[in-house]
Design a protein that fits this description.
Elements lengths: L3 H8 L17 E4 L2 E4 L22 H23 L5 E12 L7 H16 L6 E7 L8 E9 L3
Parallel strand pairs: 3-4
Antiparallel strand pairs: 1-2, 2-5, 3-5
Helix pairs in contact: 2-3
């Protein structure tokens, strides 16, 4: 099933990927009441990471911003897997992003703009959200960035 949200994605030249298989003992997304919480989504493309390493060292901030955009797209696929249709998203509530950072890198908010801007392009005003951007020492698979999303759904 696809609707207006997936049409906006298509207009941006994007399509929802398959939901990434969990790397451990968790679900990609869980619904409770009107909310869907995603697990942290890596910037996997067809099951592989296009880049690895620390942002500010092996990975540039601009490359990491693009990867955060991919993480958000993967998160939307996870949301759809439990919501059934992205048109049911009433609003994006919160985005939490983790950036594997070189010791002197302080541009985590700019990196996470990749995810936030995609959600705004896709959902308009419903995509405006609260956010945390956190620098960390290392992420799974040596990924440069990981993003989790909380959305509220419309009533059934």
């Amino acid at each position: 099933m696809s609707g207006a949200v997936e049409a906006r994605l298509a207009a941006l030249g994007l399509a929802l990927p398959q939901v990434a298989a969990p790397l451990a003992a968790y679900q990609p997304a869980v619904r409770t009441g009107a909310y869907v919480y995603t697990a942290g989504q890596l910037p996997l493309v067809d099951g592989t990471l296009p880049l690895t390493g620390k942002v500010g060292a092996e990975v540039t901030a601009e490359e990491a911003k693009d990867l955060a955009r991919t993480c958000a797209l993967n998160a939307l696929a996870a949301v759809k897997s439990v919501a059934g249709d992205l048109d049911r998203v009433a609003r994006v509530v919160k985005v939490v992003g983790f950036v594997a950072s070189a010791a002197d890198f302080t541009g985590q908010p700019g990196v996470l703009n990749g995810a936030s801007e995609l959600l705004g392009e896709v959902f308009g005003d419903k995509g405006v959200h609260a956010r945390s951007a956190v620098g960390v020492a290392v992420l799974p698979l040596d990924a440069p960035v990981e993003v989790e999303v909380l959305v509220e759904l419309t009533e059934d």
